[in-house]
Amino acid sequence: MKRILGLTGLYLLVAVIIFYAVFPFYYAIVSSLKPASQLFRLEYFPTAWAWDNYISVFREQPFAQNILNSLIVSISVVALSIFLGVTAAYALGRVQFRGRGMLLMVILGVSMFPQVAVLSGMFELVRWFGLYNNLLSLTLSYMTFTIPFTVWVLTTFMRGLPKELEEAAIMDGANPWTIITRVFMPLLWPALVTTGLLAFIAAWNEFLFALTFTLTNTQRTVPVAIALITGSSVHELPWGNIMAASVIVTVPVVVLVLIFQRRIVSGLTAGAVKG
User: Fold this and answer.
1) Cβ neighbours of residue 199 closer than 8 Å, sequence gap 6 or more
2) SS3 breakdown of the chain: % helix, strand, coil, rounded to 5?
3) Residue 161, number of CB atoms within 10 A of its CB
4) DSSP code of 180?
5) Which CATH superfamily is domain 57-274 in?
6) With pLDDT > 70 as the criterion, what percentage of the chain qualifies?
């Protein structure tokens, strides 16, 4: 009896958590399919599907360009973060040198600073390099919070790989780059998928740097583009367009997480065990 009650309570708790997490996104989908005249009616199931909000999002602003900007920035951040993370993880996880532990703690400590704490310094760097209102400024600034996590997770994995593999590769005359690309990277796929996807999500959703370092609509990413969808007053905001745009930019992230969910879980748990 106690086991049945325990399982019932567990399932109820899981149901509440799922409802709490999924319902806002579900209601955003419902609201995005409502015409403007019915938007503020409390309806949990759409009676009529209207796609006008989705059409007007692309018609009234360069939203397709904003999506492309976000894709360019997010993919470039993932590529650079994984490249630098793998090479740094090899040095920190396999090469013995003084101060290695302190250096790793400093890298991790950088990620603890809030974005607003480094915003003014990053803005001066962006202006000094002449990258204001340029997508490259977003790529460089986003790496301040994606590289620490990437290096930390990949270093944990790298330390857990058998030394015999590296020794055998050295005996065969392999250089460090060959060892990284041919020996270690095939074994690091769970960690690479985990860190790459989390870096992509962080870059895709980032707002503060994107708002500060971009000026024109054609250079803005989707979070800023959604935030700047305005009306003549608060009560006349195009909420249908805002909900439609939010659904459009959320669906790709949800799909990626569903596709790679097993890799993500295995990457995080294996890193915890090997660390």
Assistant:
1) 77, 78, 81, 82, 146, 149, 150
2) 80, 0, 20
3) 16
4) I
5) MetI-like (1.10.3720.10)
6) 90
Q: Which of 48, 45, 51 is nearest to 32 (CA)?
A: 51
Reduce the DSSP state of residue 234 to 3 states and report it: helix
Q: Classify residue 170 as exposed, middle or buried by CB count within 10 Å of its CB (0-12, 13-18, 19+).
A: middle
Please check whether residue 85 is in contact with residue 151, taking contact to mean a CB–CB distance below 8 angstroms: yes
pLDDT digits (tens, 9 = 90+) for 137-172: 999 999 988 998 888 888 888 888 888 888 888 888
For the chain, the average pLDDT equals 83
pTM of the model: 0.83
Given a contact cutoff of 8 angstroms between Cβ atoms, the answer to whether 92 and 103 are in contact is yes
Place of tokens 């006349």: 236
Closest C-alpha to 115, from 53, 224, 235, 202: 202
How does pLDDT run across 69-93, given as a tens digit for each residue?
999 999 999 999 999 999 988 888 8
DSSP 217: G
Q: Cα(first)–Cα(last) distance of the chain, in Å?
A: 40
Which residue has tokens 């708790």?
Answer: 13
Please state the rounded mean pLDDT for residues 52-63: 85
Q: Hey, where are the domains in the chain?
A: 1-50, 57-274
Distance of CA 187 to the CA centre of its chain: 23
Nearest residue to 63 (alpha-carbon basis) of 181, 226, 254: 226
How far apart (Å, rounded) are the C-alpha atoms in residues 86 and 150? 8
Query: In a 10 Å sphere around its CB, with 0-12 CB exposed, 13-18 middle and 19+ buried, how is residue 25 labelled?
Result: middle
Nearest Cα to 275, choosing from 186, 157, 100, 148?
A: 157
